[in-house]
Fold this protein.
Amino acid sequence: MDGQSIEPERWASEAAVDRAVESRRRRHHLESQLSEETGLAGVLRSSVVRGARIELSTTGPGIAGTVVTVGGDHLALDSGTHTHLVALAAVTAVHLATPIPTGAGAEARADHNGATLTEILSDLRATDTEVHLRWAPDGSCRGTVTSVGPDVVTVSRPGSGTGVYHVVLAHLVSVTFAGVGRPQLW
């Protein structure tokens, strides 16, 4: 045998290993995709595509409306008169009046630009938009965002005598503000 010929047994063995690796890679990709689509964010993205009205149970008060977008750590819900930004970590259940298909084949094309609540709160600070913050288990305040740190948002209501609230972002349930359809915020 010359040095350039391939040994059939070795070639077959290497080809079998390559097929096994590719098979595992495909299976992992499909399992990962299915997990994403059937998880909370996937259910919420499916409701965006279909414009379905949902009711959320959260670690704070419940909220109902139509999901506008699903971000990296939150969802935006349109209640008809207000926009509610709800931390995904605060969602305990989603109620859909009409079942929405999820999983393989569901067209979950919702906007998911990866924006975080911290980024959106910073945008709200820049626009002086009045917000209503709710945090777990049952706290709330109204005012304008005056600063956003890595783990706390500061809200004040100048002239109201109610002082300043420093809300720990890890306990934030929702941010509500007047108006809907403010895409510049996300």
Summary: Helices lie at 8-38, 40-50, 117-127. The two ends are 66 Å apart (CA to CA). The longest helix spans residues 8-38.
